[in-house]
UniProtKB/TrEMBL annotation:
It comes from the Bacteria. Residues 16-29 have a biased composition (Polar residues). It comes from Emticicia aquatica. CDD domains: GrpE. PANTHER family: GRPE PROTEIN (PTHR21237), GRPE PROTEIN HOMOLOG, MITOCHONDRIAL (PTHR21237:SF23). Participates actively in the response to hyperosmotic and heat shock by preventing the aggregation of stress-denatured proteins, in association with DnaK and GrpE. It is the nucleotide exchange factor for DnaK and may function as a thermosensor. Unfolded proteins bind initially to DnaJ; upon interaction with the DnaJ-bound protein, DnaK hydrolyzes its bound ATP, resulting in the formation of a stable complex. GrpE releases ADP from DnaK; ATP binding to DnaK triggers the release of the substrate protein, thus completing the reaction cycle. The gene is grpE. This is Protein GrpE. It is found in: Cytoplasm.
């Protein structure tokens, strides 16, 4: 019986060892599964935090870009206003001597008794003004005797004329002008009918 007892104990110990080995194997499997689950959880957490970081960086970049754009917009609008205000500065600087010449001519009207020198002075001033405007791209539209063109002329009235004058500019009431090949003032004309 003692032998049976010893054998029984050995069998029980063997079963206990086997059970412990199975338990250990099961625990290792569970730990492995739990470890995988923990790794998956960590993998899930990492992409979320990475996406949050990317979102924060994108927001920061957006805010900086928006601020840069607003600064650019303010700066360009300020520059545009200054450019518009000072656009005619060079023309005005060149016209001021012409104004000075007209002032001198007005003073000479008081003392001069002859008309010829006055005519010459006015002709010189007019020539100077035309040269200044021509240097800035202003030129007169030649209308008299030309065919009527609605893109260049403004018809004030029509006048009965012969067949050769029909549809042509008979008289020019007010000159038209180009500025760099763009019409800035239409010529006011009388057209033959």
């Amino acid at each position: 019986m003692a032998e049976n007892k010893e054998e029984q104990e050995q069998v029980n110990n063997q079963q206990a060892t086997d059970t412990n080995d199975d338990s250990a194997t099961n625990n290792e499997q569970l730990e492995g599964e739990n470890g995988d689950t923990d790794a998956e959880t960590e993998i899930e957490v990492d992409p979320i935090s990475a996406l949050e970081n990317q979102l924060a960086e994108a927001k920061d970049k957006y805010l900086r870009l928006y601020a840069d754009f607003e600064n650019f917009r303010r700066r360009t609008s300020k520059e545009k206003i200054e450019m518009i205000q000072n656009a005619s500065e060079s023309l005005i600087k060149e016209l001021i001597p012409v104004i000075d010449d007209f002032e001198r001519a007005n003073k000479s009207f008081e003392t001069v008794t002859e008309i010829e020198p006055l005519k010459e002075g006015i002709a010189l001033i007019f020539s100077k003004l035309q040269k200044t405007l021509a240097s800035k791209g202003v030129k007169a539209i030649d209308s008299k005797g030309q065919d009527f063109d609605v893109e260049l002329h403004e018809c004030i009235t029509q006048f009965a004329a012969g067949e050769d004058q029909k549809g042509k500019v008979i008289d020019e009431v007010e000159k038209g002008y180009y500025l760099n090949d763009k019409v800035i003032r239409y010529a006011k004309v009388v057209v033959g009918n």
